[in-house]
Write a structure and sequence with these properties.
heterotrimer, A mainly alpha (about 350), B alpha/beta (about 325), C alpha/beta (about 325), A: MetI-like fold, B: about 325 residues, eight-stranded mixed β-sheet, 11 helices, about 25% strand
């Protein structure tokens, strides 16, 4: 009998899930978001698989310490002082591909017109490195995968922490009211008013932030902020429902009611918040690493940072593989999570549903 | 006949501040000194328009909101004496809570949407820790059968949203009855249900009240429903009781102008019947008042009680 | 007396993701000049859908698949939005269920009525309009001062009275009252019903009264139709239907309504849930709830079709013989 009950229960769970899934599938934006997130998730797990199976040699493809000794033949030229000339339209055209400016060759006896063999770093995309290498000869695609791992780790860790904090505080504020409520609300106001990024700059200036430090900091700031207020308002609606009253008439304690009635009913909203706050966490990380404020080995922000300090960012699209993949990854993954959130919103919020 | 519940001078006031910056507070007397008693096995219908204090009374009786003043006496099952619920110790309070339950109006909101039917009905047993796990499950199945949800096994693992309004209200009733309470407060339990389902729920409640020896207070705005369900009817207006009498006595022989107005407003499901148009008229009430000058509730005999309050300017 | 509204074989369905919901199925009825017509049934039976379809105000996914609506001998189906707007209010107006939500909270009540009047008779001056509103307010028992008040300053009953005044403001010939008293207390309901009857008499209006409350229908209407699952199952003179109900569902509706007069009798209950309206055949949808079905009914052999049993009394042929 009991077994049978469990079976029915499982079946009903499956049905409920497939119904929600059907609703989610209706939201085209949500599905696009889900595909994007899924794509990056594949990247995340693909890298370790490539290393373990030996398909990629770790010495060559490691995102941080890997190095590929690529060489190529270059013609030595002397870039003129004034443009345009017959050969070059502007300063950025010289040296062209397969050419090297004699002024940048140190300790070399080559002369203009000679053909010499040089290390090809940063190397453009090729069959060996589908997104090329950076100036240190590291594979960009492998770096993107590593950055994707960092983004998922950071996003999910900080979102879980933040939503955990705000759900707990929000329901407590709604349920107990009075002074606790007043205190928590003022605290939220205060945190909401704090400018998050400048605060992060200051924190990272004093402490060497590792990725999980950042997750804790972002989670705490997010968890104490505005989401407490929103979750509180949801919990207030649940609190006055008759089923809470009837538990109270029967003599259920506050704690019991809080955990068994109120929390499960604010959970969908909390999940929604979680998805949206992943977006913020990934974006913040990119900004901080772009400014070089994080003690971190590899991330998308750091890739752009390196391209910037080495000056590649200023040479237009010539070294696009150093900037575009990382930049687009940040844009797409944050956008993807945001769209998933929008899709979930339509599932949980009947008013947004299409017929 | 022994009483199960006696209410004396129950008052519930709310403070309402006049504006955001104003420190002055007005007091709204939602329930303004009402007294009544309910005998064992009997049912009292509390009838009145919305905002008259019916639900506030129910919430004060079920201890959801603290009352402002007044006494609530409850029958002690051990020695049949009436005990004041203000004097109860923790053990006594627990016992009181087991014996008083409430059914709510909205079948869609009164069951936690994230719980299965089994968990919902088990909740009171779990809170009071009654019986072993197997006993509890057995009890849940039995009670579901009693309220007409069969076979119970098919419904136990379901969620409320998979049930219809009528079925949900049956589950609510099962949940309140599983503790075998002696007193039930019903706050318009059928007003949100369809006509066709309404009667079956009302019949079920009457049958169960009979079988399980439960007395109840039935709150409704509909006199016709109260007539169907209750032995006695109390009419409430503006926080005060207007008239209490056995059902037929009240309907045949109303005395207070408000009661008369209320009765004359009820549409009759018979196209050949023409209702009389009643205009508020205080003559009868005043002549009775003149004969009984000292009390505010006049006993007319036959358990017919009448308030002398004229609700100056509020009746129309 | 001539018919002001003739509805013939009207069908309307909502297109939803789970399929087509047949909210109105093959509905035919007439409303004569000055008569009141009642539509009764449980919630979800399609009463409000009928009202909305008559005004062509059904939601976007509501599609009329067949039938005709002739108002004052003009065909309404297929008219453009502009032509429809002229007929709505001027010819036909509606009093909604939720009077509370039908008012714009930030515009004074008088101004909102004036706005509707301007739309239909642009030549009237403001003072003329105001004078007319005063007359209407007096008729529905509202004080003049209500013209200058905001909706939130009015009680539920007052809002519903003002709603009736609004419905009357453009001299309609037919008023559709969709559960106008459902959210109100009995005493106020009684007053509103009286007002509706009064204005109907004074202006010689036709009235379609929609309600789930059979007692109100008994008091308010001359003719009535009982709706079940989108179809009319019984149609006729109110008195005749109450005296001699033929359809099992009508009988059950009548026997399940408690009354405060007469013998206190045991009421009958109807078990089972209303059917879903998605993808049904044309068989009787009541058969599975029918308390004492005949064999034909139980096996769902008969198509739904109203048959005439007396000059003004029509019943669906499926459940006539079920006792």
């Amino acid at each position: 009998m009991k077994n049978n009950n469990n079976k029915i229960e499982k079946k009903l769970r499956r049905e409920a899930f497939s119904k929600n899934w059907k609703l989610f599938k209706q939201s085209r934006l949500g599905m696009v978001g889900l595909y994007i997130v899924f794509f990056f998730f594949i990247l995340t797990i693909l890298q370790p698989i490539l290393f373990i199976t030996g398909f990629w040699n770790e010495a060559v493809y490691h995102p941080v310490v890997g190095y590929d000794d690529l060489t190529s033949d270059f013609i030595v030229v002397d870039c003129p002082k004034e443009y345009p000339t017959e050969k070059y339209q502007s300063r950025t055209d010289c040296p062209a591909r397969n050419e090297v400016n004699i002024k940048t060759l140190f300790y070399n006896t080559a002369e203009v017109g000679d053909t010499i063999e040089l290390n090809l770093q940063p190397a453009p995309p090729s069959r060996r490195h589908i997104l090329g290498t950076d100036s240190l000869g590291r594979d960009v695609f492998s770096q993107i995968m590593e950055g994707s791992q960092v983004a998922f780790l950071l996003g999910i860790l900080s979102a879980t922490l933040g939503v955990g904090i705000s759900t707990l505080l929000g329901t407590i504020a709604a349920f107990y009211g009075g002074r606790i409520d007043a205190y928590l609300m003022r605290q939220s106001d205060l945190v909401l008013m704090l400018p998050t990024l400048p605060l992060l700059f200051i924190i990272s200036a004093f402490a060497e932030l590792k990725i999980w430090h950042l997750a804790v900091v972002l989670g705490t700031i997010g968890g104490l902020g505005g989401s407490v207020i929103t979750i509180k308002s949801q919990a207030l609606q649940v609190k006055v429902k008759p089923f809470v009253d009837s538990a109270r008439i029967t003599g259920g304690s506050n704690m019991k009611i809080l955990f068994s009635h109120v929390l499960p009913n604010v959970a969908p909203l909390a999940l929604l918040f979680m998805v949206f706050s992943v977006t913020g966490a990934i974006a913040s990380e990119s900004v901080l690493s772009f400014l070089g404020l994080l003690n971190i080995e590899m991330s998308w922000g750091l890739m752009i940072y390196l391209a910037q300090v080495e000056g590649f960012i200023f040479s237009g699209m010539k070294y696009w593989w150093l900037i575009l993949p990382a930049g687009l990854s940040v844009t797409f993954l944050t956008g993807g999570f945001y769209l998933v959130g929008r899709g979930l919103d339509e599932v949980f919020n009947p008013r947004l549903r299409k017929r | 006949m022994t009483k199960i519940l006696e209410v004396k001078n129950l008052e519930k006031h709310f403070e309402v501040s006049k504006g955001i910056f104003s420190r002055n507070k007005t007091i709204v007397k939602a329930v303004d000194g009402i007294s009544f008693e309910i005998l064992k096995g009997e049912s009292l219908g509390l009838v009145g328009q919305s905002g008259c204090g019916k639900t506030t009374t129910a919430r004060a009786l079920s201890l959801l909101d603290p009352k402002t003043s007044g006494t609530i006496l409850f029958n002690d099952s051990n020695d049949n004496s009436m005990i004041n619920i203000d004097d109860l110790d923790e053990e006594g309070m627990k016992n009181f809570r087991r014996n008083i339950q409430m059914i709510f109006q909205d079948p869609y909101e009164s069951l936690n949407p994230r719980w299965t039917i089994k968990d919902i009905i088990l909740e009171p047993l779990n809170i009071h820790n009654i019986g072993s796990t197997e006993d509890r499950e057995e009890a849940v199945k039995e009670i579901l059968q009693t309220v007409g949800i069969t076979p119970p096994e098919n419904y136990l693992p379901r969620y409320p949203h998979e049930l219809s309004g009528g079925q949900r209200q049956r589950v609510s009733i099962a949940r309140t009855l599983i503790m075998k309470p002696r007193f039930l407060i019903c706050d318009e339990p059928t007003s949100m249900l369809d006509v066709s389902i309404r009667i079956s729920i009302m019949d079920l409640m009457m049958k169960l009240a009979d079988d399980l020896d439960v007395s109840y207070l039935y709150i409704t705005h509909d006199l016709a429903v109260a007539r169907y369900m209750c032995n006695n009817i109390a009419v409430m207006f503006n926080g005060k009781l207007v008239e209490i009498a056995p059902t037929e006595e009240l309907l045949q022989n109303p005395i207070h102008p408000y009661t008369k107005r209320l009765i004359s407003s009820i549409p009759i499901p018979d196209p050949t019947y023409t209702r009389e148009n009643y205009e508020i008229d205080f003559t009868e009430l005043r002549s009775i008042k003149a004969a009984n000058q000292d009390s505010s509730m006049i006993d007319l005999g036959n358990k017919h009680l009448l308030s002398t309050n004229e609700f100056e300017g509020l009746l129309y | 007396m001539s018919s002001i509204l003739e509805v013939t074989n009207l069908s309307m369905h909502y297109e939803t993701i789970s399929g087509n919901v047949d909210a109105v199925k093959d509905v035919t009825f007439n409303v004569k000049q000055g008569e009141s017509f009642g539509l009764v049934g449980e919630s979800g039976c399609g009463k409000t859908s009928v009202a909305m379809t008559l005004l062509q105000l059904q939601p976007e996914n509501g599609k009329i698949s067949q039938g005709s609506i002739k108002f004052d001998s003009n065909e309404m189906i297929g008219l453009s939005e502009n032509e429809l707007r002229k007929i709505r209010w001027k010819g036909m107006s509606i009093v909604f269920q939720g009077a509370m939500n039908a008012w714009n909270p930030v515009v004074k009540v008088g101004e909102q009525i004036r706005e509707a009047m301007r739309e239909h008779s642009p030549n009237n001056s403001k003072s003329e309009n105001t004078k007319k509103i005063r007359e209407l307010f007096e008729m529905v028992g509202l004080d003049e001062s209500v013209i200058e008040r905001f909706p939130h300053e009015l009680s539920g009953g007052m809002k519903q009275r003002a709603m009736i005044a609004l419905a009357l403001s453009c001299d309609p010939k037919l008023i559709i009252a969709d559960e106008p008293t459902t959210a109100l207390d009995v005493v106020i309901q009684d007053q509103i019903l009286k007002e509706i009857r009064k204005v109907q008499e004074v202006f010689g209006l036709s009235l379609i009264y929609i309600s789930h409350d059979i007692a109100v229908i008994a008091e308010m209407t001359d003719n009535m139709a009982v709706m079940y699952a989108g179809s009319i199952v019984e149609l006729g003179k109110t008195e005749e239907i109450f005296k001699d109900p033929k359809h099992a569902y009508t009988r059950m509706l009548l026997e399940s309504t408690p009354s405060i007069i007469g013998e206190k009798k045991k009421l009958r209950s109807l078990d089972g849930e209303p059917p879903t309206l998605i993808n049904n055949d044309n068989k009787c949808l009541f058969s599975y709830r029918c308390p004492n079905p005949t064999n034909e009914c139980k096996n769902r052999e008969l198509d739904m079709e109203l048959i005439k049993i007396s000059s003004s009394h029509y019943v669906d042929k499926c459940c006539i013989d079920c006792e």
